[in-house]
């Protein structure tokens, strides 16, 4: 027997509500993260909840905070700090070099978004570290929603006047969430330690993610700027793993590679260089060879670990890839797809 029209209408609306609830629950798909729950996007409130501190310092370029300078706020943190402290860098362009020394750990530097809060400098140097706009040398550091820029003009190719680092990361247990890194060359000096980059934007032309750290780049956008001074090509990565005993490597998961001009995914900077791109969109800006051993005189037969797994896009075709590069199986890729690659469960506030 059919329901009366009024009851039918109520039943239909109730059904819609139930379906909507199920749909929203499915889309949110809350995943357990170290005792808490992370949304599909790690945001500032979640990080604050995980870090769980009431200690905070406000930086405001207009003078409406505790400090007008980011460095002044960092300098105010006690040496040997052992409890998390939040440095809230409000919107604005802070034209200064910023350094977090080794004796000031447990800093959470929170911006208002990478399009609103920027730390900006302009310097080239023979010394990569000296040129860096931002340096972190203390463990247990987290940044959220900040752009780091080195606006030094492009120097002379293959010379020391071409080092213009946006950020130097030289400490263990460092994480960046929703940050951006800009330079024309040597953008991100990921020197050493275990690092996590989530939903970050990284822009450059030559070797613009380099070092020998142990890092995961999750859902990051890599944007290539053509370097017209050379016939071909810059490299996105230059990893300097020098021994099979080192657990280091750069792993890119669920990101995008796009841009202007031609580029390699990576080059061998060390004899055991290790870089993996997994589940990544690769545009045609990546050349068919994919990888290069430019400036590396050693054998490519056994030690280099330049690999891809389940990538897609017009630049992901593996037909003409460098002979030493690998297309990984599910089993081979599994150790690099886990947060355990950087022991993240032991120290990260949140991950996806």
From TrEMBL:
<feature type="active site">
    <location>
        <position position="207"/>
    </location>
</feature>
<comment type="pathway">
    <text>Glycan metabolism; pectin degradation; 2-dehydro-3-deoxy-D-gluconate from pectin: step 1/5.</text>
</comment>
<dbReference type="InterPro" id="IPR033131">
    <property type="entry name" value="Pectinesterase_Asp_AS"/>
</dbReference>
<keyword id="KW-0063">Aspartyl esterase</keyword>
<dbReference type="GO" id="GO:0042545">
    <property type="term" value="P:cell wall modification"/>
</dbReference>
<dbReference type="InterPro" id="IPR012334">
    <property type="entry name" value="Pectin_lyas_fold"/>
</dbReference>
<keyword id="KW-0378">Hydrolase</keyword>
<comment type="function">
    <text>Acts in the modification of cell walls via demethylesterification of cell wall pectin.</text>
</comment>
<comment type="similarity">
    <text>Belongs to the pectinesterase family.</text>
</comment>
<dbReference type="GO" id="GO:0030599">
    <property type="term" value="F:pectinesterase activity"/>
</dbReference>
<keyword id="KW-0325">Glycoprotein</keyword>
<dbReference type="GO" id="GO:0045490">
    <property type="term" value="P:pectin catabolic process"/>
</dbReference>
<dbReference type="InterPro" id="IPR011050">
    <property type="entry name" value="Pectin_lyase_fold/virulence"/>
</dbReference>
<dbReference type="InterPro" id="IPR000070">
    <property type="entry name" value="Pectinesterase_cat"/>
</dbReference>
<dbReference type="Pfam" id="PF01095">
    <property type="entry name" value="Pectinesterase"/>
</dbReference>
<protein>
    <recommendedName>
        <fullName>Pectinesterase</fullName>
        <ecNumber>3.1.1.11</ecNumber>
    </recommendedName>
</protein>
<feature type="domain" description="Pectinesterase catalytic">
    <location>
        <begin position="58"/>
        <end position="344"/>
    </location>
</feature>
């Amino acid at each position: 027997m059919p329901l009366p029209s009024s009851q039918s209408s109520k039943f239909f609306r109730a059904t819609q509500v139930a379906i909507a609830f199920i749909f929203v629950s499915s889309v949110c798909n809350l995943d357990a993260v170290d005792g808490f729950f992370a949304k599909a996007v790690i945001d500032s409130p979640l990080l604050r909840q995980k870090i769980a501190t009431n200690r905070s310092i406000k930086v405001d370029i207009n003078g409406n905070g505790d400090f007008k300078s980011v460095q002044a706020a960092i300098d105010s943190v006690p040496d040997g700090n052992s409890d998390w402290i939040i440095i809230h860098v409000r919107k604005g362009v802070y034209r200064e070099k910023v350094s977090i020394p080794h004796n000031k750990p447990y800093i959470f530097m929170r911006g208002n978004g990478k399009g609103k809060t920027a730390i900006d400098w302009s310097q080239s140097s023979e010394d990569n570290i000296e040129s860096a706009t931002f340096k972190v040398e203390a463990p247990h550091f987290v940044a959220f929603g900040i752009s780091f820029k080195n606006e030094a003009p492009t120097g002379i190719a293959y010379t020391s006047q071409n080092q213009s680092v946006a950020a130097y990361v030289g400490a263990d247990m460092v994480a960046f969430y929703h940050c951006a890194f800009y330079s024309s060359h040597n953008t991100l000096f990921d020197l050493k330690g275990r690092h996590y980059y989530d939903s970050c934007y990284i822009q450059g032309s030559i070797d613009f993610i380099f070092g020998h750290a142990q890092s995961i780049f999750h859902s990051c956008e890599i944007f290539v700027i053509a370097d017209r001074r050379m016939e071909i090509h810059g490299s996105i990565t230059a990893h300097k793993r020098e021994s099979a005993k080192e657990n280091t490597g750069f792993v890119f998961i669920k990101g995008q590679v796009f841009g202007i001009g031609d580029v390699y995914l990576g080059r061998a900077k060390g004899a055991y260089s290790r870089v993996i791109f997994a589940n990544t969109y690769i545009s045609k800006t990546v050349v068919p060879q994919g990888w290069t051993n430019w400036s590396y005189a050693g054998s490519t037969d056994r030690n280099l670990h330049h690999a891809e797994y389940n990538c897609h896009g017009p630049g992901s075709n593996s037909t003409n890839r460098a002979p030493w590069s690998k297309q990984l199986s599910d089993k081979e890729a599994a150790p690099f797809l886990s947060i355990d690659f950087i022991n993240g469960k032991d120290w990260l506030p949140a991950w996806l």
